[in-house]
Amino acid sequence: MRTADIARKTAETDITLSLALDGGEKCVDTDCGFLDHMLELFVVHSGYGLRVKCKGDTDVDFHHTTEDVGIALGQAFKKALGDKKGIARYAHVVLPMDESLVLCAADISGRGYLNFDVDLPAAKVTDGDDEITVKRVGLFDTELVEEFFAAFAREAGVTLHFKKLYGKNTHHIIECVFKAFARAIKSATTVVGGEIPSSKGVL
Which CATH number fits the domain 3-188, given the four candidates 3.30.1360.70, 3.40.50.1820, 3.30.230.40, 3.30.830.10? Predict the structure, then answer.
């Protein structure tokens, strides 16, 4: 089984995370409602098993929680993949979410890189129409979406490209990003052969 457990504790966050690339238990609790919502979408559309519990300094804001969950998820992803033998390695998805359309392309290359060409109209996800209020005091800063994926890509050793092709509603665009990521990374980690997919013989 391609699984990994991560425990990460700093002065800002305390995280336990378990990842199963071939499916498993699903339980997400980061104490940030919007991040929980996005991670739940990721679990559904990737087919991965994910258990994550985070206690962070949400009295300040959601920056440390979001970035550190990205770090822990990236570390678990790299550990669970092992030598990457037989995986598809590359994948891309163009995914619609109502009026929004986002491209995500992934290369499980061993080299962490993020290109995030996604303009988000609003600076915060608010409690307005079609959007969501977080569980605790404060609202989710939309710039944290890029921070999450930068942390994941760096720790996982994955090259990720996102491009917004269209979109007006900030919630929809971010949801589209997470769903596209889930679908692309699911395809890239699918086992399709028996060899390491690199001319170098190692990833």
Answer: 3.30.230.40
